[in-house]
Design a protein that fits this description.
The structure is a single chain. The chain is built from 1 helix and 6 strands, in the order E-E-E-E-E-E-H. By secondary structure, the protein is α+β, with helices and mostly antiparallel strands.
Length: 86
């Protein structure tokens, strides 16, 4: 499969590199992000389910899911009530 990644760097206020995160830009209907140290060792992986409405964050060393988040929660709690007012 074809895969392209874009890289972003996280720095402290003094400009020191803390970590990098990369996003696979071309995947089949879901996004994948990686957080790694300055030497390229991956710490975490976040991957979206179909169409990226839900994400799971996995710690790579233990293979455990450490977090989950759902983009539709913002829609249900913040956006939809505002639209229904009008």
């Amino acid at each position: 499969p074809l895969s392209v990644r874009r890289e972003h760097k996280l720095r402290d206020p003094d400009g020191n590199l803390i970590a990098k995160y990369k996003k696979k830009m071309i995947t089949n209907f879901r996004s994948v992000y990686y957080l790694e140290d300055g030497k390229g060792h991956r710490w975490y992986e976040a991957y979206g389910e179909f169409m990226d409405f839900r994400f799971n964050v996995k710690e790579i060393s233990s293979e455990k899911i450490i977090a989950e988040f759902d983009k539709t929660e913002k829609w249900k709690s913040e956006i939809a009530p505002e639209l229904l007012k009008h």
